[in-house]
Amino acid sequence: MSREGYQVPTASAGSGAVARGSTGMQDTRSSVMSYLCGDCGGSVHLGKDSTVACPHCAGRVLYKERTKRMVQFEAR
């Protein structure tokens, strides 16, 4: 097939196709992440454009919380 004959596929709203780079999840759930403060140990919920600082102690070292899912690795 030649380059001139190629047409870029378009995703319509009703086709159910997921846009490139999208996970298909709703943005409301994935826009807020919870972290643990490295100084006071408090739980911090940050949005996409939030300042990276603990509201309790103004600490700037935040750790991502460990997942609740079971993670299993196979050793060989």
What does this structure look like?
Helix content is 5%, strand content 16%. It has one helix and three strands; from the N terminus they run αβββ. It has one helix at 27-30; strands spanning 33-37, 43-46, 62-64. The protein has a three-stranded antiparallel sheet, with no helix packed on it. The N and C termini lie far apart (44 Å). The mean pLDDT is 77.
Topology (SSEs and partners):
Layout: H1 27-30, E1 33-37, E2 43-46, E3 62-64
Antiparallel strand pairs: 1-2, 1-3
InterPro entries: RNAP_P/RPABC4 (IPR006591), RPABC4 (IPR039747), RPABC4/Spt4 (IPR029040)
Family: Belongs to the archaeal Rpo12/eukaryotic RPC10 RNA polymerase subunit family.
Biased composition (Low complexity): 11-24
Compact overview of the structure:
With 76 residues, the chain is mostly beta strands. The chain has a domain at 29-64. 5% of the residues lie in helices and 16% in strands.
Q: What are the salient characteristics of this protein?
A:
single chain; 76 residues; mainly beta; three-stranded antiparallel beta sheet; 1 helix; 5% helix; RPABC4; nucleus; DNA-directed RNA polymerase activity; metal-binding
The helical percent reads under 10%
Which class of secondary structure composition applies to the elements? Answer: mainly beta
Largest β-sheet summary: 3 strands, antiparallel
Report the uncertain regions.
none
Strand order of the largest sheet: 2-1-3
The tally of beta strands, per DSSP, is 3
Output the number of helix runs.
1
**Whole-number mean pLDDT:** 77
The run of helices and strands is HEEE
How many angstroms does the end-to-end distance come to? 44 Å
Residue share in β-strands: 15-25%
Rounded radius of gyration (Å): 21 Å
Shape: flat
